[in-house]
Design a protein that fits this description.
- Residues 327-336 have a biased composition (Pro residues).
- Residues 1-20, 320-390 are annotated as: Disordered.
- Helix 3 (133-143) crosses helix 4 (190-196).
- Strand 4 and strand 5 form a beta hairpin.
- The longest helix has 49 residues, at 275-323.
- The protein has nine helices and ten strands.
- By secondary structure, the chain is an alpha+beta fold.
- The protein has two domains: 1-110 and 258-294, TATA-Binding Protein (2-Layer Sandwich), CATH 3.30.310; 116-253, Glutaredoxin, CATH 3.40.30.10.
- The strands form two sheets. The protein has a five-stranded antiparallel β-sheet, with helices on both faces. It has a five-stranded mixed β-sheet with strand order 6-8-7-9-10, covered by helices on one side.
Length: 390
């Protein structure tokens, strides 16, 4: 959510030297004591093609306001330069305070900085709506995105003269004048206008006005609370419309797109310090360094104590080892463990190849003897045959 102390704004400067315009305007504000001081950051401390200006001033006597404006080229060549401004006060923001945009930029009818960056419409002035209904729808849908500005739509019930061409910003407090974009619809555009707004959930009364919710809509927004039934465009103050815009600005809303980075830079990368702030900053740095040194010293002492304790424990262990009696050496062979005994027992039962039985061996011997006898008998018979022939 947007902090209550923060004032954000965004716009576009038409092609030209916006840096020179800012330098001259800020110097004039300093000379007139509207601001206390300003500073342009060196190029090496900013992003490429970006210029950053800081300014500070006081409101209500002693409330300090710090503001940071960054300037970048537009997305397309010839689009000029887009600016983003974030200011923060030491107390919740009061819209009766001067507009930070009005302190950075010059005031006057020929200013070229007061354009809405998204819609190219003029801030704080009356912007007639396009004639085509689809163009109205596209314009309003794109304009309310991002949450940077408050968009007010007024329907003119009849053609107005110069007195009715006074924008509502003229009656708003200074802090809101550069945050309002005012759209005006011609008498015959009411039906097309409400058709274009149907997605927003709001409707403009005939001859009235409405404050658009934006995207995203703020918490507590109810279209009935921010719809004005009649706006008299006769040059008189539109009291009800001013009240609706002021109440809408007080609703809690998320930070606009891109404002968070700018707010972080404002808070954490601030350069424009007073002498007292610079002294306080240096004291803070000294205190921080002292705390870091103390922590390092404490860690070193703890490490040294741990190392000394470890050395003492090692020395005690070594002394105890030297004082212990020597263990006697065994005289006999080392005893056999039960596991070794069990292993040897199993080795005795290893499977060996079985030998032939005794009966089988005798039978074999008998068969061998019978064979020898038969051979001997055959030999004797042959000898007898040879003798008888002779």
């Amino acid at each position: 959510m947007t902090p209550a102390t923060v004032w954000p704004a965004r716009g576009r400067h038409t092609p030209g030297s916006a840096e020179d315009v800012l330098r001259r305007s800020l110097q004039q504000r300093k000379d007139s004591r509207a601001i206390d001081d300003f500073l342009e950051l060196p190029e090496d401390e900013t992003a490429p093609a970006e210029r950053v200006f800081e300014a500070r001033w006081r409101v209500d006597g002693d409330v300090t306001v710090r503001a940071r404006l960054s300037l970048k080229p537009g997305p397309d060549e010839g689009d000029g330069q887009e600016w983003l401004l974030v200011a923060e006060a030491e107390q919740p923001w009061d819209h009766a305070w001067p507009s930070p945009a009005g302190l950075f930029w010059p005031e006057g009818p020929d200013t070229a900085w007061d354009q809405d960056a998204a819609s190219r419409l003029t801030l704080g002035e009356i912007n007639p709506l396009p004639q085509d209904d689809r163009e109205i729808r596209r314009l309003l849908r794109n304009a309310v995105r991002g949450g940077w500005h408050i968009h007010v739509v007024v329907h003119e019930a009849m053609t107005t003269d110069d007195r009715g061409r006074t924008p509502v910003a003229r009656w708003l407090p200074p802090g809101l004048r550069h945050r309002v974009v005012e759209h005006h619809a011609a008498p015959q555009q009411l039906r097309g206008l409400n058709w274009a707004l149907r997605d927003s959930g709001v409707e403009v009364p005939r001859g009235g006005a409405v404050v658009l919710p934006g995207v995203p809509a703020p918490e507590g927004y109810d279209a009935r609370d921010f719809s004005v039934r009649a706006v008299f465009l006769d040059g008189s103050e539109p009291v009800d419309l001013v009240d609706a815009v002021t109440r809408f600005a007080a609703l809690p809303r998320p930070l606009p797109d891109g404002a968070e980075e700018a707010l972080t830079a404002l808070r954490e990368d601030w350069h424009l310090l007073t002498l007292q702030e610079e002294l306080d900053r240096q004291r803070g740095l000294v205190a921080m360094y002292a705390e870091a040194l103390e922590a390092m010293t404490k860690s070193r002492d703890l490490y040294r104590e741990a190392a000394e304790s470890a050395h003492e424990a090692l020395a005690v262990y070594q002394e105890a080892a030297q004082a212990a009696p020597a263990r006697p050496q065994p005289s006999g062979p080392p005893a056999v463990s039960p596991l070794q005994q069990l292993t040897r027992t199993f080795e005795r039962f290893k499977v060996k190849r079985p030998s032939a039985p005794a009966g089988d061996r005798k039978k074999g011997d008998g068969e061998s003897g019978d064979t020898s006898d038969e051979q001997s008998e055959g030999k004797d018979t042959a000898d007898q045959r040879v003798t008888s022939e002779h």
